[in-house]
Amino acid sequence: MRLYRFLILFSVILTFSNIGNIFSQSGWVQQTSNINKTSYSVKFINSSTGICVGENGIIFRTTNGGVNWIQQSTGFQNNLRSLAVTSPSTFYAVGDSGLILKSTDTGLSWFRLSLAKPFYFFYSVLFVNDTIGYIGGVDINFDTPNKIFKTSDGGNNWDSIETIGSFSVTLFFINSEIGWSIIGYDVLGVYDIIKLPMVD
Predict the structure, then answer these.
(1) What average pLDDT values come out for the chain (200 residues) when binned by 10 residues?
(2) Domains of the chain with CATH codes
(3) Quick one: which of 122, 167, 171 has its CA closest to 143?
(4) Alpha carbon separation from 195 to 11, 93, 182 (Å, rounded)
(5) Are 32 and 47 in contact (CB under 8 A)?
(6) For position 101, what pLDDT does the model report?
(7) Would you state the torsion angle of the CA atoms of residues 56, 57, 61, 66, taken in this order, to the nearest 10 degrees?
(8) Maximum separation of any 2 CA atoms in the chain, in Å
(9) CA angle (40 as vertex; 49, 176 as ends), nearest 5
(10) DSSP reduced 3-state for 180
(11) Are 52 and 69 contacting, i.e. CB atoms less than 8 angstroms apart?
(12) Per DSSP, what are the bridge partners of residue 95?
């Protein structure tokens, strides 16, 4: 019994003596940016260079760790909702009305990739290596089965993978073939997680 009381007392003293260390988080510093649009995704390739995408086709680039952001022109007004990076120079951005953009110069310039899906709103893009990537989203007509799109050549060509549900919110892959998707069934917030590839 004495040992039990000692252990409890020791645990309490240890907890309160380290309370500052338990609840402190010294790694986060709030930064004020010059981005005046809604941002949906940000990726950094190192401690200083990053890209941010958001509403109305905005793409901002920083080279000083987010202290300042410089807007990059894309020529598109579609909302950009997700961003992927495959190398220090190569980025992909996806968004509304089937828009897929690629940059091969660390986000300084962007060009459109072809995927004839004008009624798709893409919510997620993920690449597992330099060439293999996946895109998920929603067909706003809701008249086709939910699909995830896969490229094996860096976005030049895309194949569709039919899944369940009405739309794909986000994607996660552990290798080029096996992954998971959070899918939705309706706009009321009914969601599920499925493993890919789907097996009957």
Answers:
(1) 44 45 61 80 93 93 91 90 94 94 94 85 92 88 76 93 72 80 65 59
(2) 51-196 (2.130.10.10)
(3) 167
(4) 42, 24, 9
(5) no
(6) 96
(7) 40
(8) 74
(9) 75
(10) strand
(11) yes
(12) 80
